[in-house]
Specification:
By secondary structure, the chain is α/β, with parallel strands linked by helices. Helices cover 41% and strands 9% of the residues. Strand 5 and strand 6 form a beta hairpin.
Length: 244
Amino acid sequence: MTAPATTAAQVSEQADAAPGLTDLERRVSECRACPRLVDWREEVARVKRAAFADEEYWGRPAPGFGDPSARILVLGLAPAAHGANRTGRVFTGDRSGDFLYAALHRVGLANQAHAVSRDDGLRLRHTWVTAAVRCAPPANKPTPQERDTCLPWSVRELELLRELQVVVCLGGFAWDAALRLRVAAGAPAARPKPRFGHGVEFDDGAWLPMLGCFHVSQQNTFTGRLTEPMIDAVLARARDLAGL
C-alpha cells in the first residue's frame, strides 16, 4: 500500500524530531535510576553467555529504535538479557526480535527480516519500536516501581514522535504500561479499564488507538500461542489505522 504524501510541514516536524530522539537515546543509555536493574544488566554484561563470550555487551538501557516519522508505536516489555542488553538495540539479537522484525518485514514496515546488531542495516518504515522498561530485568520481570520510573522516558518519546496514530502492545505488561502512558501524556484514564487480549482494539477517541498482541517471547511463539499469521494480522490492522 502506498503511504500518504508527506507535506512540507511534516518534513519540518520530522527534521525537528530527529535531533531530539538522538538526545533522548543518549540520556536513556546513561540512566542509572533503578539500582536492581543496573546491577543485573551490568552483571550479565560481565559474566556473559558462553555463545557470546567474545562479544562486548552493551550493558546499558536500550533506547527506542525506528523511523522518526513513525505512525505506529510497537511497545514491548523490556530488553532481553542476552538480546538488547548485549547488542544495544531493542529486540535485536534474540529469538523474540527475530520473530518481530520478520513480521514487520512481511507487512512492509521494515527493509529486512533480520536484526542481529546495531549496524546490520535494519531500517523501519513508519514504525518505532520501544519498551516500557529500558533495562533488562532479572527473570524478565520488572517491578511496578521500575516500570513507573521508566515512564517519563516514554512520555518524552511520545512528544517527539509527533506522527503517531496507533500503539501496538506486545503483551499485558505493555498494555498496562500504555494505559499509564496515556494518562501521563495528559489523556483521561480509560474507564472502565480495557482488558488486554490478542487482537483486542481499544479506541475511545481520547488518545491513540491501542492494539493488543501476544508477546513475541519464545514461550508464545514456540508453543504456537502466537503464530506468524496472528501477528501479521495485528500489524496489518495497525498499518490500516495509521493510514498507510
